[in-house]
């Protein structure tokens, strides 16, 4: 179900057989750790010079073009139930780190595809967190899937704000034999925006901005000098803001306005 080339990188791998562009990533892990895109042999050799193949396995696989999404769902008695699909806002290549998620309407082709994936993997009862790409041809391509809730404040906070579904609560109810439902009660236009700054910045007063920008929940832990955002670890502890608005465009505009409220300190 992943029609791409994928190679385990070993000291004996013939690099001349690889077709570019490629994604280089650890065989195991999460949070976009050490994931990097390379477009030619020179960039590949530079990337390989920075990793230790004796410590862990790395893969080289075809870079799939298209819009990237995150997905929250559940499988109950083998049936996939869609909760929320989230359009990802990403850093520019070579890194592929999410700096935000924007709620989106259900894409029926994705729901059908996830049912096929769930059946192929013989999933029976679990929560689902997946990353996928919709190619320019409209075909879903799965990047990764885990039978668990998503992190980064998504399942615990964002999904409930955008859909009214508390995934953990509904899962516990199901396990206890109580009434439960993973079906969205609504789908609001919402965005969760992380803080992808570099250097030293001063955060704004969120309480003053809440009404103006539609901020319904936030956490800000910015202090000290911030490094470059390259993976989940480098951004997630800084905090986030969740904004609800009347449209996708308004969500993006208000999130952009919030980011501009952070002041860069020049020292």
From TrEMBL:
Secretion signal: which residues?
Answer: none
Keywords (alphabetical) are:
ATP-binding, Ligase, Nucleotide-binding
Residue stretches making up the ATP-grasp domain: 18-176
Q: Which InterPro entries match?
A: ATP-dep_AA_Ligase, ATP-grasp, ATP_grasp_subdomain_1
Q: Which GO terms describe its molecular function?
A: ATP binding; ligase activity; metal ion binding
What's the domain of life for this entry? Bacteria
Q: Which Pfam families would you find in this protein's record?
A: ATP-grasp_4
Name recorded for this polypeptide:
ATP-grasp domain-containing protein
The lineage, from the top, is: Bacteria, Pseudomonadati, Campylobacterota, Epsilonproteobacteria, Campylobacterales
């Amino acid at each position: 179900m992943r029609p791409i080339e994928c190679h385990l990188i070993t000291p004996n791998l013939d690099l001349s057989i690889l077709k570019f562009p490629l994604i280089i990533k650890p065989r195991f892990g999460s949070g976009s750790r050490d994931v990097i895109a390379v477009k030619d042999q020179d960039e590949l050799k530079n990337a390989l010079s920075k990793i230790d193949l004796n410590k862990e396995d790395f893969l080289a696989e075809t870079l799939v073009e298209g819009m990237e999404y995150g997905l929250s769902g559940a499988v109950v008695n083998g049936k996939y139930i869609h909760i929320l699909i989230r359009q990802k806002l990403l850093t520019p290549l070579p890194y592929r780190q999410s700096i935000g998620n924007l709620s989106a309407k259900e894409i029926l082709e994705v729901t059908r595809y996830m049912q096929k994936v769930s059946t192929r993997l013989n999933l029976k009862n679990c929560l689902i967190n997946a990353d996928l790409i919709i190619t320019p041809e409209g075909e879903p391509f799965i990047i990764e899937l885990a039978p668990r809730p998503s992190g980064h404040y998504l399942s615990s906070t964002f999904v409930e704000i955008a859909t009214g579904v508390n995934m953990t609560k509904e899962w516990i109810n199901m396990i206890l034999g109580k009434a439960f439902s993973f079906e969205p009660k609504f789908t609001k236009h919402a965005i969760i925006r992380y803080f992808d700054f570099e250097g030293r910045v001063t955060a704004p007063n969120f309480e003053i901005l809440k009404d103006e920008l539609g901020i319904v929940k936030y956490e800000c832990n910015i202090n000290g000098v911030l490094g470059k955002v390259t993976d989940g670890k480098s951004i997630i502890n800084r905090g986030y803001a969740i904004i609800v608005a009347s449209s996708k465009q308004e969500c993006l505009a208000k999130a952009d306005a919030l980011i501009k409220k952070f002041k860069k300190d020049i020292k």
